[in-house]
Description:
Elements: H1 2-7, H2 10-20, H3 36-47, E1 69-73, E2 79-87, H4 96-108, H5 114-122, E3 126-133, E4 141-149, H6 153-170, H7 174-191, H8 195-207, H9 218-223, H10 227-237, E5 244-248
Parallel strand pairs: 1-5
Antiparallel strand pairs: 2-4, 2-5, 3-4
Amino acid sequence: TLESLAAIKRQQIIDFYRRYYVGRNATVAIVGDLTVEEAQKVSERVFGGLKAGKKPPVIPEPVSPQGPQVVWIPFQSQQAHIRIGNIGIRRNDPQRRTLGVANHIFGGNALLSRIGMEVREKRGLAYSINSRFSSMAASGPFLVDGEVNGNGLIEAIRAIERELQEYIDQGPDEKELVAAKRNLTGSFPLHIAQNNSLVGSLSAIGFYDQPLDTLSSYPSHVEAVTAESITKALSRVIDTENMIIVVVGGNP
């Protein structure tokens, strides 16, 4: 908040730096024409001067809200920006790949997703609508994110809620599941085709302490996902009775 930002003191910044910018809290990812030995020498030359320090404490889990919450921020605009969601999963959740496929079908595949077809194509209520799991060291959010017609705000929210509950109850059909698997595994090589994208993936593997075969095992993990595993994972993670709805603009 503006108030908490103004309250930060210089010494707090120094203390934070000294605590977290240390060797035991560093991850170095290098992609390029180097041997392992050369990469180790580069890492030591660049970061060897860092104090060893200590690993920071484990990030605590966020607390789930009790009961649904609606936050509306008035703003004069023809469109309303909405976010609907709740607490999702950690990066190392064993069902992360399953939920990745599930989300691709529901709202991750842009215009061809379930909510894309229902809210944008069928009802004409949104210019863009999507969903995602932001998995982090602690549990990050599951979010449905969209820009909708301000006059159709309530209709859009209700359509999203109905579609989400139906998806949790029934899961995907076989056609949706096959198409999602083909799309995800087929496009996956493009995400690691360049050095800058590959080093980002390696950084995440190191930072989140993931298995070293995370990239090579991705296609087989996606192919192993079933409709039943999707419904089980969604039922465990998404609590439709305690969702948070945030709206900026529009006419609620």
